[in-house]
Amino acid sequence: MTTGSLKSDATTSDPGRPGSGSALRSSIRWARQRPFAVGYAAALLAVGLATGVISGPARSIRLLLGTGYESVIDHGHWWSPLTSVFFVDDGAELLLALAGTLIVLGFAERLMGTCRTAIAFLVTAILGATIGIGAQFLGVAGGEMWSRGVSELWAMDPFTPIFGSALAASFFAGPLWRRRIRVLGVSTVLVLVLYSGQPSDLYRLLAVLVGLGVGWFGVGWRSRPIRPLSAWRRSSDHESRTLLAAIVGMVAVGPVITIFSGARYGPLAPLGLLLTQDVPTAGDVVDRCLLGDITRQCVQELSLERIGGAGPVLVSLLPLLTLVVAAFGLARGRRFAAWLAITLNAGLALLAAWYYGLLPISGQPYVWQWQSGRYWEVTLILGVSVLVPLLVAVVILANLRHFPVATRTGQWHRFLLVTVGSFTGLAAAYVGLGWLFRTHFRPGVTLFDLIADVPERFIPVGFLRLERVSFLPNDALATTLYDSVGAVFWIIVFVGAIVALRSVAVGPSVDASARLRTLLSTFGGGSLGFMATWRGNSLWFSASGRTAIAYRVVNGIAITTSEPIGPRSEAAEAVAFFARMCDDHGWVSVFYSLHDSWKSVFVAMGWPTMQVGEETLLRPSTWSTTGRKWQDIRSSINRADRAGVRAEWTTYRSLSLTAAAQIAEISEQWVQEKELPELGFTLGGLDELHDPEVRLMLAVDSAERVHAVTSWLPTRRDGEIIGWTLDFMRRRPDSINGVMEFLIAQTAERMQERPEVEFLSLSVAPLAPVSGPRQGGIAAGLLDYLGRTLEPVYGFRSLLLFKNKFQPEFAPVFMSFPDPVALPEIGLALARAYLPSLSVREVVTLARGLSQ
């Protein structure tokens, strides 16, 4: 579709519509809706200007109004938990606090109202700091190392109540924002605690927990949703990928927090020492620290010595940057990125556990006294160092089904070969050259010392925080060897990950996608042909390049997404060659979602066929809503008019950020209401809306609130659009009755103005009953059973009845296959295609249902 046609179709802007006034009026209206957030921001700004924007408040003000252990316990400043949230340390923090107040706190106020926001703000500010100070008091009394180390620090932090209020507001948000607020909010404060570890970080974490309690009580008993535990786990694939990518990204950039932190007390703070310049000499470290007298200062100096030079810095930073690369891949559904993140996190966790737990058992000198109560904090630090990356790896592994874009086998093998080969070669070079220059280390090294030291050359410094240093390089030559092998390895991994993620998306290449779209524009491919462009499909082209077939391989069954796309003159030949290709790969070919016009091709081949559904078609040229049968449709249109709801024909790229966020929220809420995951295969989701050729019909009211959304896939012939197919359908639970009927009717009326549009397809209701008996034995029985089982959740039969309201034409849709013996496998493959996250146990349950 050309840009010109998109512009001509776009809904014209109405100057009288809300939001089209001046920026000043919009700002005033925005501020009036968030008086508490605006007032708090004004107070922060005024206090910041009065106390000094650059250097921050004077020491006397910090001592009087800042909070902390000494402030409350030693000096009795009981008011300080509340007063401390009105001050910041410097100008940069002031700007960040103002942005957080207006965006985060303003969003919270918009969700739960001014009164509840004020209550949540005060309660979380006071209790977050008070509970934290109480914990510090107990820690100091018990001699706990962290509490004693931070007892003299004073906190001045407006983010404590901001985070707490945001988590309280999550109870008033829809499923999409509820999940985002909680996952991102809790993850952020945990990362701050782990990598910074200052008292203010602890207060924020406690404020978040208090905020969850405030929100839980604030929604009231009657309006509090009662959901099973599984409801928290359900999410759309798109949203799950977004949240997991955000978590991996935050954990990866966590060490940067320690770089800008005034003090580094978190369990994972050693990574923040990467840019420290105070590096002791190797001789001093060895003389004072290799005698078995391990102290906190000695441990820090050993860590500093390990990161002296560019090589160790790269060894510590590049795994984190590789995780950032993996996070970008996770957001795009790449399975390679998921396995990369799993491997890196699990590897770091296992290596940390081995170094911190097994070395003393293997006879090496103890790093600390395991049985001494004095060092229980060290045990906790080591446990956190192991559990944090391990937990991230386990979470991604448990959600692996959300990353369907697999890597091409050749590229995956190439990455593994390069990674393993480079590690082996660099390790061998380190041992060989190290033995050759063994006199350049202090103390002198043996061959066993070098071999035992190999893993440490490749491991980030933070995970070797308490591990004994056996030897160190004594000159520039040995230092280069000591530092470079790990850096070179991680550079190779980092670059290799970027190359793999840029070039290994499963399915068609960019060239193949362009060729497919050219064929679709020329030959159409039927009303379901545009589904061939969806991510997750593989593409096969005939020798002439004029016919394309999109397919997915599930359990050895190659299922086509739609009918072949190309000229009918080579249809039989293309089908035969595709079937031969599948046979060469050991796959059973199944042509799915075919129309009657293709049946003669498969009858001539001797292949059996089975009807799998009925497509419902509307003809815009004869569209009319007159008569008794159309009463429901007319009522829906009139109801929308009375409610001030209008229909907008647009594209996803033309949406405002607000409208796009509302559509995502509507979709997520729909997914969470289901007891099973989102369906796939011939049913598109949120990701498929982004295609610039897909059109959206939205139901929007006068307040710019999106009530419902439908998406329409184009069908072309000789470059001209001749039809649209309904795909994505979502509505708000509290939207007006009949909003979907309204949108479809409005789409049909719009298409009446275009004589070139021959049809509107309401698509095929998958797994819904067909007219007459369905032939196909076990496969048919499985499809019928699957449809009956999933009906209470997905409503296939209800969807078919809904489409009947439009008095459509019915066009049977069938599938064809070469061998009836493979029907059981075909049935299960179709079930897995629609429900890719279906577990083995669920498959067995479905199979058992056939015998009942």
UniProtKB/TrEMBL annotation:
Keyword Transmembrane listed? The answer is yes
Q: How does it sit in the membrane?
A: Multi-pass membrane protein
- The residues that cross the membrane are 37-58, 78-107, 119-141, 153-174, 181-197, 203-221, 242-263, 310-330, 337-358, 378-400, 412-437, 487-504, 516-534
Polar residues composition-biased segments: 1-14
UniProt cross-references to Pfam families, sorted A to Z: LPG_synthase_C
Which portions of the sequence form the region Disordered?
1-23
Q: For the Phosphatidylglycerol lysyltransferase C-terminal domain, which residue ranges apply? A: 518-815
Q: What is its main location?
A: membrane
Listed InterPro entries: LPG_synthase_C (IPR024320), PG_lysyltransferase (IPR051211), Rhomboid-like_sf (IPR035952)
Instruction: List the Gene3D superfamilies.
Output: Rhomboid-like (1.20.1540.10)
Q: Which superkingdom does the taxonomy of this entry point to?
A: Bacteria
What keywords sit in the KW lines? Cell membrane, Membrane, Transmembrane, Transmembrane helix
Localization terms from the record: Cell membrane
Protein known as:
Lysylphosphatidylglycerol synthetase, C-terminal domain, DUF2156 family
The top of its lineage is: Bacteria, Bacillati, Actinomycetota, Actinomycetes, Micrococcales
